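INPUT
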Amino acid sequence: MHRFAVIGLGRFGSRLAANLAASGHEVIGIDRDTALIEELRDRVTLAISLDATDEQALIAQGVDKVDTAIVGIGNNFEAIALTTVVLKQLGVPRVISRAVTPTSAKILAKIGADEVVNPEDESADRWANSLITPQFRNHLELDPQHSIVEIQTPDDWRGKNLIELNLRVEYNIHVVAIKRRKPDQPEHVPPSVMIPDPTSALRENDILVLMGADKDLAKTV
Amino acid sequence: MHRFAVIGLGRFGSRLAANLAASGHEVIGIDRDTALIEELRDRVTLAISLDATDEQALIAQGVDKVDTAIVGIGNNFEAIALTTVVLKQLGVPRVISRAVTPTSAKILAKIGADEVVNPEDESADRWANSLITPQFRNHLELDPQHSIVEIQTPDDWRGKNLIELNLRVEYNIHVVAIKRRKPDQPEHVPPSVMIPDPTSALRENDILVLMGADKDLAKTV
Ligand SMILES: Nc1ncnc2c1ncn2[C@@H]1O[C@H](COP(=O)(O)OP(=O)(O)OP(=O)(O)O)[C@@H](O)[C@H]1O
Ligand SMILES: Nc1ncnc2c1ncn2[C@@H]1O[C@H](COP(=O)(O)OP(=O)(O)OP(=O)(O)O)[C@@H](O)[C@H]1O
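OUTPUT
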């Protein structure tokens, strides 16, 4: 069972703290804003109002004993940086600190952050990818040049089966799974995930889970 | 070629606008803060300082002609809501609006938003998952009960091949790919993605890309 501290309970920090606690882990939530502490009190193990840059206050609350600390302060780089340094000095094994710019990310890494998190940029990157390639309904990056993606069955693949389509030779891609609706399945139930049967003809609403090089996957849309 | 408008150029909006423009799409960036407009001017097609709730100003700048508008304003629900209504009235086909809470998400959907985005919550959810199950180094959700995940080769699987491990029968999971380092590959180069050879023994540093039901995948760690 892992012990966490989340310091800075804005939108990112409070959501993270509540999620971690909801999955059964011990979570200390820290913020100098007492209203936020009251709001989060029932959803974490311990919620304390204090200034995160106050080393003695952190020790008094056992923050030095956690396994992982996440600094979710947003608008005050000095506070993020100082809190990061203090946490590492207190011996916290893993400190994840919020970086709002690439420069602050570099600085935080240099002063001890084990990882950096930038919630707005990470979300913007994902949304940009889904807007740039809307045909990829889902995406896992295997490496910078290979992915697993989900696509709707292209019109000219409908009615053909995987043996006829010969995707490995034609496109150098693999069909990892097919999501197909069963005949009388209600709309709100997600389609069933199936291992592809190479002899079964693809249907209009099938969702294909494909794996391959990004340049090859791009040719399917 | 898709035409976008990004309204509200804070951390999320400016990153999204710059990413979309960098991939070759036409992007109109809008914010009432002239300093932000200056900062983004070279990285988007058109950057305009105006108040997004001003319908006439939006029409004058051609915002009514875009395919997709993203409202990235954060701290002012009234402005997000009003801008959303105005954009739909102007006939913008797809409007993605920022919701900071579940309640605002419901309201925005009711008043016309085609989708909602909540950058801090989306990022917090991803980070929580990776902190709760650190053994899953990557994750794609196929549906609420099935996933594709990456794991380090478990110790007791090392030296065995996939035929011996018989994962389909033992765990009801499939190995979709294996990431393996080549003997003299430098550290900074990612391991190569390979289709699994069922007769090849798994090695200590192999990363296995597995697919199955979440409850079955959980048994591998
Ligand atoms: N020195 C500090 N000690 C404790 N808490 C702090 C300190 N400085 C800032 N905080 C808290 O960190 C929280 C998040 O920081 P802030 O609101 O500046 O960033 P934000 O980018 O708006 O956050 P979010 O995007 O997650 O809502 C706030 O609730 C604030 O009270
Ligand atoms: N009516 C409006 N018209 C145009 N721009 C607006 C309007 N209201 C707010 N904005 C702009 O939206 C941008 C983002 O909003 P805000 O800073 O309130 O949210 P935030 O949550 O801090 O954003 P982020 O997390 O993306 O940095 C700001 O740059 C602000 O100037």
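end of record. The pocket of adenosine-5'-triphosphate (ligand 2) is lined by residues A 120; B 8-13, 30-33, 36, 51-53, 72-76, 79 (CB under 6 Å).
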